[in-house]
From TrEMBL:
GO molecular function terms listed in the Swiss-Prot or TrEMBL record: FAD binding; proline dehydrogenase activity
Catalyzed reactions per annotation: L-proline + a quinone = (S)-1-pyrroline-5-carboxylate + a quinol + H(+)
Domain Proline dehydrogenase: 304-637
Record's GO cellular component terms: mitochondrion
Family membership: Belongs to the proline oxidase family.
Pfam families: Pro_dh
Keywords: FAD, Flavoprotein, Oxidoreductase, Proline metabolism
Signal peptide extent: none
The name this protein goes by in its record: Proline dehydrogenase
Enzyme Commission numbers on file: 1.5.5.2
């Protein structure tokens, strides 16, 4: 049904997103007729078997192709004040447009009312004229094009100036607050109910003799409720105080299937239009019911509390530090220690306890996981029967996860299946998939699922990347823990470090619901957290290099902050990591901070632009958020406008108004 289309791709040179992977492969045809695929702008795909068969022909196309770029490298101005380096990839009209857009973003009235203004303008001007105006202004500046065919000229030009893409299909639903709240509340509560009780197991325990669940008053396994993992109508609209992140609201399983197709198409676009150097962004809340992520997140945090209880009661010394906060891998507890402790409360000969101990994951350094977490990416897993632990007081097996119906079990398996399809597609096409971070009440589950897919797919290179938000107090601990798991379970670790997108919402929600604020108290504290976390990643990279071991860590510094970028560059030099090592890359949004991205790419660093694309009318919510975000970073806007004006004056004074960008750089 599908037809084949050969696209060239550049030779492999690294295992990380910062590098250039192997020869291009065909893409797999998305559901639907070929004609539909062409009209939508998405390339059809072939199967992974066809991929192997086409490699020789593709290699020949590469040898005879005309895509070869130069190997030019420019010195880097670390002050990021070089206007020519920043904008020589732009036409004079694009520079003027950028200046106009940033000037409009400086107007509080226009920014606060931008969606209303756009809707009124569309109604008055008509769709055709409105679309033309948007393409000449905001849309043209912040969005690459309508589909993966139309974005190719932008990607080609970026590449010729040393910059690679992260593709994101940025279509968003324009929901009212009322509709968003309704969807979120309905999809965040189990059909069995949502009880915020002190006893997370509701008095249920497993009888050691017959293996059946029995009722009873029950003692709270871990004292205290966890309100952050339960929906609250006040914050059900997850767009509240969020301007720099896209939000998905669950409607039904069919919508999740459609989102799966969209993400697959983004992966296809990466394979077909970026010469193998790009990435595709994915959000897990688009692929399943949020209730499931909430409940799994609560299980993870209760497991940490359970481990804190065990280690607090264990007389034997262990190697854990004060910052371990229940992360099991950091406790270095030997299986014998765990058995000795459990023996005080349980009969180790009982079948449920024996099964629990058999499922514990450990190595020579001690426990890694209490539960067989690899099982959560098994599409046949029954969640309700997985998270059972012995109560340290009664010895009974109790559940950490409650309120999950058979229908919801099926929904969880569907979500895992969708993620697995995307990961398999990424592997088949030899492209990278970056899982975005989300709110803290989802993030434990998102990170755990992502880590398990890393363990499954990142065996030869870093295909799957996780995202860490450094405005969170626990960012350093989370990254350190995940780095340690990757090291001990021998898989490639990929991470994108960001400051974070949900700061104001997280603070407001924590204050309203009465749980500790998970965020750092200040911008300076967040910078310190970011730099500390990045330093730990680089330290581990250096350690591998010094020991002559292959590097298995890839990091993206996704930041618009000059000081953070400079810090990363200085640290690389300090510990002897060069851009050619291809283990660290940088990323900024399309249309923002070009004065950082392009000088980095042109001086030999691995540099990325986050590339949104989609039909004009369907990316209006995205454009609205970009305007809001730019309003909040006036200092950066002032610098951007100053450099744009400098380059504009230079071209006018030198008679270069008709300047045509022609790059001769090759991305590293």
């Amino acid at each position: 049904m599908a037809f084949l289309r050969v696209v060239t791709r550049w030779p492999a040179s690294s295992k990380f997103a910062c590098a250039t992977p192997g020869l291009h492969r065909h893409a797999l045809d998305p559901p639907g007729a070929a004609g539909t695929a062409l009209r939508s702008g998405f390339l059809p795909l072939t199967t992974s078997s066809a991929v192997a068969k086409s490699s020789a022909a593709t290699a020949e196309a590469l040898r005879g192709g005309s895509q070869t770029l130069g190997s030019r490298r420019d010195p880097l101005d670390a002050t990021f004040d070089d206007a020519h380096a920043a904008y020589k990839s732009k036409t004079t009209w694009e520079i003027l447009r950028a200046y106009i857009v940033y000037t409009l973003c400086s107007s509080n009235y226009l920014v606060e009312n931008n969606m209303k203004i756009m809707k009124v303008a569309k109604a008055i001007l008509g769709e055709k004229i409105f679309t033309a105006i948007m393409k000449s202004t905001f849309y043209g500046h912040f969005v690459a094009g309508e589909d993966q065919i139309r974005i190719r000229p932008t990607l080609e030009r970026l590449r010729s100036f040393g910059v690679k893409p992260i593709l994101d299909y940025s279509v968003e639903e324009d929901l009212s607050q009322e509709e968003a709240e309704k969807r979120e509340v309905e999809s965040s509560v189990s059909e069995l109910g949502d009880e915020k009780v002190q006893d997370p197991v509701h008095g249920l325990y497993m009888d050691g003799e017959d293996g059946h669940w029995k009722g009873g008053a029950g003692r709270s396994l871990v004292e205290g409720t966890m309100p952050q993992f339960h929906v609250d109508k006040t914050f059900a609209d997850r767009r509240y105080k969020v301007s720099s992140a896209r939000t998905y609201f669950y409607l039904n399983e069919a919508t999740c299937e459609r989102n799966l197709e969209i993400f697959q198409q983004s992966l296809q676009a990466v394979a077909g239009a970026t010469y193998g150097t790009g990435l595709a962004a994915v959000k897990l809340t688009a692929l399943g019911r949020p209730q499931l992520l909430l409940q799994l997140s609560e299980v993870i945090m209760r497991t940490r509390q359970y481990m804190t209880e065990i280690t607090a009661l264990t007389a034997q010394a262990n190697k854990s530090s004060p910052d371990d906060k229940g992360n099991i891998i950091g406790k270095h507890i030997q299986p014998e220690e765990l058995q000795q402790k459990l023996q005080q409360a349980c009969k180790l000969s009982e079948a449920p306890v024996k099964k629990f101990l058999q499922n514990v994951t450990y190595d020579q350094e001690g426990l890694i996981h209490l539960f067989p977490w690899s099982g959560i990416i098994d599409e046949n897993l029954e969640l309700s029967e997985t998270f059972l632990v012995p109560d340290m007081k009664t010895g009974k097996m109790v559940r950490l996860l409650t309120q999950l119906s058979s229908k919801e079990e099926e929904m969880f398996r569907n979500m895992i299946r969708r993620i697995n399809v995307l990961a398999q597609t990424a592997e088949d096409l030899d492209v990278r998939m970056m899982v975005d971070a989300e709110q803290t009440y989802f993030q434990p589950a998102i990170s755990r699922i992502t880590l398990e897919f890393m363990r499954k797919y990142n065996t030869k290179k870093a295909l799957i990347f996780n995202t860490y938000q450094c405005y969170l107090k626990d960012a350093f601990n989370e990254v350190s823990t995940d780095l340690e798991q990757a090291k001990r379970q021998n898989f490639y670790f990929g991470a994108k470090l960001v400051r974070g997108a949900y700061l104001e919402q997280e603070r407001a929600r924590a204050a309203a619901l009465g749980y500790p604020d998970p965020t750092n108290p200040s911008f300076e504290a967040t910078s310190e957290s970011y730099h500390r976390t990045l330093t730990e990643c680089l330290r581990r990279i250096k350690d591998l290099k010094d020991k002559g071991k292959p590097n298995m860590i890839g990091i993206m510094v996704a930041s618009h902050n000059e000081d953070t970028v400079r810090f990363a560059i200085e640290k690389m030099k300090e510990i002897g990591i060069s851009p050619e090592d291809k283990v660290l890359c940088f990323g900024q949004l399309l249309g923002m901070c070009d004065y950082i991205t392009f000088p980095l790419g042109q001086s030999g660093y691995s540099a990325y632009k986050y590339i949104p694309y989609g039909p004009v009318n369907e990316v209006l919510p995205y454009l609205s958020r970009r305007a809001q975000e730019n309003k909040g970073i006036l200092k950066k806007i002032k610098k951007e406008k100053r450099l744009l004006l400098r380059e504009l004056i230079y071209r006018i004074s030198r008679g270069k108004i008709m300047y045509t960008p022609k790059g001769d750089y090759t991305p590293i």
